[in-house]
Specification:
With 717 residues, the protein is of the alpha/beta class. It has 4 domains: 92 residues, OB fold (Dihydrolipoamide Acetyltransferase, E2P) (Beta Barrel), CATH 2.40.50; 91 residues, no CATH class; 209 residues, P-loop containing nucleotide triphosphate hydrolases (Rossmann fold, 3-Layer(aba) Sandwich), CATH 3.40.50; 168 residues, P-loop containing nucleotide triphosphate hydrolases (Rossmann fold). Strand 3 and strand 4 form a beta hairpin. The chain binds adenosine-5'-diphosphate and magnesium ion. The site of adenosine-5'-diphosphate has 19 residues, from helix 11.
């Protein structure tokens, strides 16, 4: 068999990487400045300060052994591998390498004394280590634990360690706050930044690896405090910077202004806001009224509003957006409403038309897929200012779109937009030194600790109440084997004149497979639902991501108008779609969906007065049971309808890192602190930040630059 030439994994004794490649790899890690290198802290540590006798090593221990090579062979069964036996005088251990360089083979020649480090496996055939790191024996044992740094392909630990230590030696590390400032939290946490960093890069062997690994060591406390302080400072700075920006004053007009005093006979013209409230087919809930008042107060101030409006699915955020738009339009300015998907944008457009057109407002519509002529016409309406309201997808922030005088931007389902897009929106809309007011809406409530740290720059309004007359959705978790019963239930609902959603999962690996799956389900349901009691054919529609925008719209329209009883769809209906007559939702392979996604989907039913249900069909596939996490998600869905509770459980299941999703792309994540565990440090940072900024602005600026460098911009998005 010819020797394979495919590359071997980077070994300890790998050839030095050329300078430029190292530089590139360092940049990939975001390590540009000395301080970045100094703050690049170990992921974990290896203890190479000790040699363990094989006799004393237990199965599963990661240890360093030293001994003589007694055998070194290339074996071909079951696959090509280098098999090396080491004898340390107490016992022997087999080292296996599935890929190796000839130079490594030489270093492991029979008779050589080596040190090898890896996890010991017991095994029927004696002790083994798989791909241990090794080098020749001799020389002093290191006196410190060996740090292992996060790295990228092509940058080995040895080179990286050298760069990091060099950066640490050069970096300016004078303290921005005194060690004693932390004493209220932990009296042992009295470390300076320099001491803490030096220690974490070369910890003395007497320290407990556990305290280092779980970040509870006082040196870590200092760093976590530093990191949280940087985050709080940067948000505080951006909040203050915003306070110095100007925005159009959108004051609510009082009714008297519209009643011409000298013409008592003239019809009384009411402000748009008041008229809209009066013509709505429902009464605003107390929660809606409260958040409207909060928004109105922001809009009449000459500084840009940055407000997050959170409210569970179905809580009625859209009408709040319309009312905010009404205030803006009445003041003589334009408003933009942006949604993440075309279906959602179109639905908003129709709603806005329905509410505002009778009151004389011209609304423009922008999407990436519209015809050039229509688009040009829309652009003109926007540029001339004739369109007071613009509704659309990302198309709203494209180059060509020129507003006459935009004063308010509303972003629906803001978590669907990345940080970069939100920044683009703000930058685009800023002109003449004026920024627009921003209202961001989300159905994914942000847990308190996250709100305190990541969204500290935002003001938050919460709709904590659903419109009256909704019956809670009953959620059932049902095994795939009971599909027939579910179909019978669909029959039932249709017979009562209700409509049904059937959601097929998105199959990540393959859009084609995805489509097949949805198409098959569609055919199956169509066949199963024919011959209904009243003799009429049941209309089953299909909606998937590959369809042209127009087709999608036609299907949605048919469903919305009730001409279609069942809608089979991939997750394109996930956000915002509003068909109050739909009373049953079936989610197939519910175990594959994320928790907040399931909750969003379920929110498509239960929008009217009829009792609604959600059936979560699951399948364990070849496995005997669902994974722990999948079960936790389905259980949460069955147990609660409350979006806040769902978000809390989601955070438990996934952890804050994943919870934030798109936000991660802004690299704004905390690297060291853990919001759940480090609440005391977070509280400290929240108190410390304004004090530092007020009393020592230069130190505050230095602190933020040190920690965030060029990344602080992202924190403001
Ligand atoms: P979401 O907050 O999920 O975006 P929507 O704005 O789509 O919710 O509202 C859900 C449904 O509730 C819509 O049909 C909307 O017209 C209706 N709605 C909103 N506010 C009220 C209210 N105060 N009373 C009754 N129905 C309302
Ligand atoms: Mg909505």
């Amino acid at each position: 068999m010819p020797h394979s030439t495919r590359s071997a994994p980077a070994a300890k004794a790998s050839a030095p990487v050329p300078k430029s490649a190292t530089q590139k790899a360092l940049e990939k890690l975001g390590l540009k400045r000395d301080i970045d290198l100094a703050l690049h802290l170990p992921l974990r540590y290896e203890d190479e300060t000790r040699i363990t006798k094989l006799r004393d090593a237990r199965e599963g221990d990661t240890v360093q052994i030293e001994g003589r090579v007694t055998e070194c062979d290339v074996s071909f069964r079951p696959r090509r591998q280098l098999v090396v036996t080491v004898d340390d005088g107490t016992e022997t251990c087999t080292l296996r390498f599935f890929s190796f360089y000839p130079s490594q083979q030489k270093a492991l020649a029979v008779g050589n004394r080596i040190r090898a480090r890896g996890e010991v496996k017991g095994g029927f055939l004696g002790r083994t280590m798989l791909h241990p790191s090794f080098h020749s024996a001799g020389g002093d044992l290191p006196t410190a634990l060996t740090p292992i740094y996060p790295t990228v392909a092509g940058l080995g630990q040895t080179v990286l360690r050298k760069e990091v230590l060099a950066g640490l030696a050069r970096a300016e590390l004078s303290d921005t706050f005194a060690p004693g400032d932390l004493s209220q939290i932990n009296h042992q946490a009295l470390w300076t930044l320099r001491e803490a960093l030096s220690f974490l890069h070369h910890p003395t062997p007497d320290v407990s690896i556990d305290a280092l690994q779980d970040h509870s060591h006082p040196a870590w406390q200092r760093l976590k405090a530093e990191e949280l302080l940087a985050q709080q400072l940067s948000q505080l700075m951006s909040r203050r910077a915003r306070a110095s920006l100007r925005a159009p004053v959108l004051a609510m007009v009082s009714p008297e202004v519209f009643a011409p005093a000298n013409e008592p006979e003239a019809p009384v013209l009411l402000p748009l806001y008041t008229e809209l409230v009066a013509t709505l087919p429902f009464k605003l809930t107390a929660a809606q009224q409260r958040v409207c008042a909060e928004i109105a107060r922001d809009l009449e101030r000459p500084v840009p509003m940055h407000r997050l409006l959170q409210g569970d699915v179905g809580s009625g955020k859209t009408v709040v957006a319309a009312l905010a738009a009404a205030i803006c339009i009445d003041a003589g300015w334009q408003c933009a409403l942006m949604a993440p998907t075309e279906i959602l944008a179109e639905q908003h457009f129709r709603k806005m038309l329905g509410w505002l057109e009778p009151l004389g407002v011209t609304t423009a519509w922008l999407t990436g897929t519209q015809k050039a002529r229509e688009r040009r016409a829309m652009l003109e309406l926007i540029e001339s200012g004739e369109a007071a309201l613009v509704v659309g997808t990302h198309a709203v922030i494209q180059e060509k779109v020129q507003f006459k005088n935009l004063a308010l931007a509303v972003i629906d389902e803001q978590h669907r937009f990345g940080v970069a897009q939100r920044l683009a929106l703000r930058n685009k809309l800023t002109h003449d030194g004026m920024e627009p007011h921003m209202l961001m809406m989300t159905a994914t409530p942000i847990p308190r600790t996250l709100a305190m740290s990541y969204y500290a720059d935002l003001d938050v309004s919460t709709i904590d109440q659903l419109p009256p007359g909704r019956t809670p959705i009953v959620t059932k978790v049902v095994n795939e084997s009971r599909r027939d019963e579910v179909i019978a239930r669909i029959h039932d609902q249709i017979a009562q004149g209700r409509q049904v959603y059937w959601v097929c999962p998105l199959i990540e690996e393959s859009e084609a497979l995805d489509l097949t799956n949805a198409t098959q389900t569609h055919a199956e349901l169509q066949a199963a639902l024919q011959g209904p009691a009243d003799g009429q054919a049941v209309q089953v529609g299909l909606l998937h991501s590959r369809m042209a925008a127009q087709e999608k719209q036609a299907v949605m329209a048919a469903f919305k108008e009730g001409r279609m009883a069942v809608l089979v769809s991939t997750t394109v209906i996930e956000v915002g779609v509003d068909v109050p007559n739909a009373s049953l939702m079936v989610i197939e392979h519910a175990e594959r969906f994320g928790l907040s996604q399931l909750h969003q989907l379920r929110g498509r039913v239960g929008r009217g007065a009829a009792a609604s249900a959600c059936v979560l069909l699951y399948s364990t596939g070849d496995a005997p049971r669902l994974s722990e996490a999948a079960r936790a998600r389905l259980r949460a869905m069955a147990e609660t309808n409350d979006g806040f509770e769902i978000a809390r459980r989601d955070l438990d299941i996934r952890g804050p890192g994943e919870f934030l999703g798109a936000r991660q792309s802004g690299d704004a994540m905390l690297r060291f602190a853990d919001l759940d565990r480090d609440t005391e440090l977070l509280q400290w940072a929240r108190k410390e930040a304004p004090m530092l900024l007020d009393q020592h602005p230069a130190l505050a600026a230095k602190h933020v630059t040190r920690w965030l460098g060029g990344k602080s911009e992202f924190l403001k998005a």
